[in-house]
Amino acid sequence: MKILRLILGDQLNSNHSWFKDSDHDYLYVMMEIKDETNYVKHHIQKILAIFAAMRHFNHELQIKNFNTLYLKISDERNKQTFIKNLAWIVEKNNVHKIEYQEPDEYRLDALFQGFINYFNIPVQSCSSEHFYANRESVKEFFTDKKQWRMEYFYRHMRKKHNVLMEPDSTPHGGKWNFDADNRKFWNGEPKAASDLRPHHNLEDIYDEIKKEKIIFFGNCDVKNVRWPISRQESLQLLDTFIATNLVYFGDYQDAMHDQNWFLFHSFLSFALNTKMISPMEVVDKVQAAYQEKDLPIASVEGFIRQILGWREYIRGIYWSFMPGYESNNFFSHRRPLPDWFWSGETRMNCLATAIKQSLDQSYAHHIQRLMVVGNFALLAGLKPEEVHHWYLGIYIDAFEWVELPNTLGMSQYADGGQLASKPYVSSASYINKMSNYCKSCHYDFKKRVGDNACPFNSLYWNFFATHQDKLAKNQRLGIVYNQLKKMDTKQKQQLMEQSQIFLKNINAI
Ligand SMILES: Cc1cc2nc3c(=O)[nH]c(=O)nc-3n(C[C@H](O)[C@H](O)[C@H](O)COP(=O)(O)OP(=O)(O)OC[C@H]3O[C@@H](n4cnc5c(N)ncnc54)[C@H](O)[C@@H]3O)c2cc1C
Ligand code: SF4
Q1: What is the pLDDT of residue 181?
Q2: Do 433 and 285 sit in the same domain of this protein?
Q3: Model confidence over 289-333: pLDDT tens digits?
C-alpha cells in the first residue's frame, strides 16, 4: 500500500517538507500532459523549459533515492489527463491515499478538489510552502479597507517579515518607496551586463513535442535554450543578478532600448514561478547584499517591492476574486487582437520591437508588457479575454495566478479599478521619454493627426473621451479630463476621426 504524491510542473520546490527523507511508502508522480500544454497556445520555449525542469527535478529525486513515476509526453502509458493517468497509477500501485500540494491555479484547484469523487480513497492537500502569504492573506488584510492598494499591503509585509526595517519599526532609508527615483532613461551607459543565463540543448524534448503534435508558437533555438532548469542554475542566476545588475535595477527599471532587451532585469520569474527558488531566499540574499555592499537603497527597495509586495499581492487578488475574475470586461471591449500580435509586423516600432522580442525570447520586461503592448491593447479596445490568453501563452513566466491579475487588472483595467487606481495608459510622449523606440519609427511621436501621426496619441484621447462616463469621476484623472474639456471642438473631432482611421485599419498600421 502506497501514498501517491502528485507534483506539478510549477511545484519544483526541493526544499518542501515532502522531501525531508526518502520513505518508500511514498510514490512521487509527475506527468507531462496534453491537457496542460493545449488549454491555451503556448510559446515553445515555455513548454520546453517546463518539461526540462520537471525531468531534471525527477532525476534529482531519483538520485536521492525517492520512489518516482514520471510520464513523459511521449510515454505510451500516458493518457494525457490528470484523472485518467491517476486512475491507472492508483490501481497498478495499490495506492491507498493521494496527496497533492495546493495548486496555484483555480482550474486545477477545482479539479483536484474533485479527486475525492473520482477515486475511492482519501485525498489530502498541503501547502506548497513557497509564498510568504497564504491565499487568503490579501483578502483578510483589506477586509475593512476601502481600496485594495498594493502599497499598504507591501508596508504590512515589510513590517511583518522585518525586511528593510529599522529597530524602531520605521522603514530603512526614511521612506517606504523609492519609486520616484526609478525612472531614468538608458542611453547606453552604464553598460548592461551580458546575458549570463545557462545554455541547454533540448532537441530531444522538442522532437517529442513535435511527434505528439503539441500546438505551440514562437521562436527558439532548441539547441540553445537559455532558461534555468534546476535549482542550482536558478541560484546561480540570482547570484549573477546581485553581482552585476542589481546596482542599476532601480534607476533603469522602467527604461526600454532597442539595443538591449533585458537591461538590468533579473530573469528570475521563471525560476520563482516554478518554485525552483523561493521568494524568501531571493529577498534575504538581496537584503544581505545590501548590508555587505555599497548598493543604492532605491535599487534594493525597488527590487524587494516587486517580490515581497507585488508578487504576493497579485496572488492574493487572484484568490480573492476567482472564479469570475477572468470574465471581467469593465469597458466592454470587443476588438479582436490584430494579426501582428503573432508576428510583430507593424510599423509601430515600439510594438514591433516588444512583440518580436517576446516571440524570440518568450520574455519582455515589465514596462514593455505594461506600457507598450498592454497600453496599446487598452487604448485600442482589444478584448481582455484575448489579451489575457496571449499573455498567458507567450511569456516564459506566465502562470494564471500571476498573469491574469497583471493583464486583466493592472494592464487592461478590466476589473474596474480593483487593482489599479487608474488605467495604465499613455500617449507617445511616455514611450519616447523612456525608450529610443520613437527615433527609428515610421510614425512621428509628436504628431497627433495626419498619415504618420503616432497612433498612441489619438487613441489616447479617444479612450478618455469614449469612457468619460466611467472614468471622469476618478480624482487621479482630473488633469486628463481638464485637458479634454479645454480642447477645442475641432481639435477633438480631428483626434476622434484619426483614431477611427487607425482602428479601422488596425491590421495594417
Ligand atoms: C500585462 C502584464 C503581464 C504580466 N504577466 C506576468 C506573468 O505571467 N508572470 C510573472 O511572473 N509576471 C508577470 N508580470 C510581471 C512582470 O512583468 C514580470 O514578473 C517580469 O517582467 C519578469 O521578469 P524578471 O524576472 O526579469 O523581473 P524583474 O524586473 O527582475 O523583477 C523581479 C521579480 O519581481 C516579480 N515581479 C515584478 N513585477 C511583478 C508583478 N507585477 N507581479 C508579480 N510579480 C512581479 C517577478 O517575480 C520578477 O521575477 C506581468 C506584468 C504585466 C504588466
Ligand atoms: S512614435 Fe508612436 S508608434 Fe512609434 S515608437 Fe513611438 S510611441 Fe511607438
Answers
A1: 73
A2: no
A3: 999 988 999 999 999 999 999 999 999 999 999 999 999 999 999
* Nearest-CA residue for atom 1 of ligand 2: 445
Across 207-213, average pLDDT = 97
DSSP conformational letter for 102: P
Provide the domain limits for residue 72.
2-126
Q: Is residue 432 in some structural domain?
A: yes
For the chain, how many structural domains are there in total?
A: 3
Write down the pLDDT at residue 193: 83
Same domain? 71 vs 141: no
- Domain assignment present for residue 230? The answer is no
For the Cβ of 182 lying below 6 angstroms from any atom of ligand 1, the answer is: no
Residues 154 and 303 placed together within one structural domain of the fold: yes
Q: What is the CATH number of the domain that holds 106?
A: 3.40.50.620
What is the number of the ligand 2 atom nearest to the C-alpha of 349?
A: 5
> What pLDDT does residue 250 have?
94
d(CA 358, CA 352): 10
Query: Mean per-residue pLDDT for 47-54?
Result: 98
- Same-domain status, 180 and 284: yes
Residue owning the nearest CA to atom 2 of ligand 2: 454
Which residue minimizes the CA distance to atom 17 of ligand 1?
366
Shortest-distance atom of ligand 1 to CA 392: 8
Q: Kindly report each contact of residues 462-465 with a partner whose C-beta sits within 8 Å and lies 24 or more positions away, as own/partner.
A: 462/379, 462/495, 462/496, 462/499, 462/500, 463/378, 463/379, 463/381, 463/423, 463/425, 465/492, 465/496
Determine the residue of 399, 406, 407, 424 to mutate for testing ligand 1's pocket, defined as the one with the most ligand atoms within 8 A of the Cβ atom: 406
C-alpha to C-alpha distance for 360 and 230, rounded to whole angstroms: 22
Q: Are 458 and 502 in contact (CB under 8 A)?
A: yes
Establish whether residue 269 lines the binding site of ligand 1, counting it when its CB lies within 6 angstroms of any ligand atom: yes
pLDDT tens, residue by residue, 492-507 = 999 999 999 999 999 9
Please state the atom number of ligand 2 nearest to the C-alpha of residue 431. Answer: 7
Report pLDDT digits (tens) over 409-430: 999 999 999 999 999 999 999 9
**Rg for the chain, CA atoms, rounded:** 24
User: Are both 455 and 482 inside the same structural domain?
Assistant: yes
Q: Which ligand is nearest to the CA of 457?
A: 2
Amino acid at 70: Y
Residue 192 has pLDDT above 90, yes or no: no
Ligand in nearest proximity to the CA of 447: 2
pTM of the model: 0.97
Considering the domain architecture, whether residues 272 and 416 belong to the same structural domain is answered as no
